[in-house]
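Single-chain item
Fold in token form
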Amino acid sequence: MELLIHVIDDEDLTCKALRHIFEREGHQAVFSRSGKEALERLRQSRPDLILLDLSLPDVNGIELLKEIQSSQPQVPVVMISGFGTIEVAVETLKLGARDFLTKPLNLAKVTSLLENLRAQLRLEKEVQQFRTDQQNQFLSQHVIGNTPLIQKCYSLARSSSGNDQLTVLITGESGTGKEFLARYIHYHSPRRHKPLVTVNCSALPKDLVESELFGYERGAFTGAATSGKLGKFELAEEGTLFLDEIGDLQLDAQAKILRFLQEKELQRIGSPYTKKLNVRVLAATNRDIEASVAKGLFREDLFYRLNVMRIHLPPLRERKDDIPLFILHFIQVFNREFGKRILGVTPEAERRLLRYDWPGNIRELRNIIERAVHLATGPYLTEELIQVERPPRISAGPVSLGTEGPFSLREMERRYATSLLESLKGNKSKAAHILGISRARLRRILEAKELA
């Protein structure tokens, strides 16, 4: 890969040595002898790398570095100087310089620098192509549903996409398409070419929530990686962070997310410094978030911060007119995946699918069609291939919580979940489904007294 390198230096010997290296390595180079000349060139083109001398005839190199960082922050800048001190080098690195080289230049180090940059640019190009492919693949899909309920949801999503600072809270039962809607907002927003980072909050181990979201410095705690770690917020810089199942987060993590939404900055574990970030936050939950606020399980101030734009996705049982559309869509998806040529479903099979209440919503319908297409031997999916199961009915009678009481809300929650699990002979999947929570959330409830 050929690089375009802009050298800003007024010393003939240095320019001659660099020109020799660039020609040998197959790179293009332009040379500016002053700050004024450099700024004029930078207005006309964007280089892949800038080598900037600290001492120029008309401007201080540090001041020029600030201007470059302001106008072209994505271009890496390497400072060069014949009288640099450690203090000056540290100052330039804090201002955003990639490296600091001293004169006379170590030609081997310059060559290594170019190789590393070439590899980085190649990787960035591949990542950008991957994001573009993901975006194109997503946008090639169409929103499924003609019912007024779902059309209203996507009308709100389109209107919120344009304002890429707007926080959106997506609510709805499990399997209703909350992550799909979050991707829809991201890929229709000005941030669509930047990263979309998804975090399943319910799957984060309690002890690692903070380090996963906000990152940590080297040696911040026992077992920390020697190089430190970027958190999900930093990985989403200039893009979108989607916090799925945010209602399952612990209160201390909620407080830090609130601070980020208010200040747009975070502090890594083990770091004395805060860092400003440009990240849009989308959040989703399958919980009754207002009820969680009333019970003290979710911060009221965070709820108001997230609830700037609220989009509630209806369950599939409230949009049954869309079920035939989903059936055809999923048949097409799994025809491609399994190499089948299924044309549709029989009338009996369709009636069975329409009569069902779909507690697992679109995700459950997808799974049932996937299984049916896999097993089908004819051109249509028959009623025998459609296996829908209704969740077991649990007695509405009182559940014994014991006689010790009184109990805290969390203890009552744990005891009820334990009693339900015993009635289901230890089937955690069914217990979580009946309670309307994830398996991870159920596990944390049970672990409140180490009974999981």
User: Anything to note?
Assistant: The first helix runs from residue 12 to 25. Confidence is low (pLDDT under 50) at residues 392-399. Residues 177 and 424 are 28 Å apart (CA to CA).
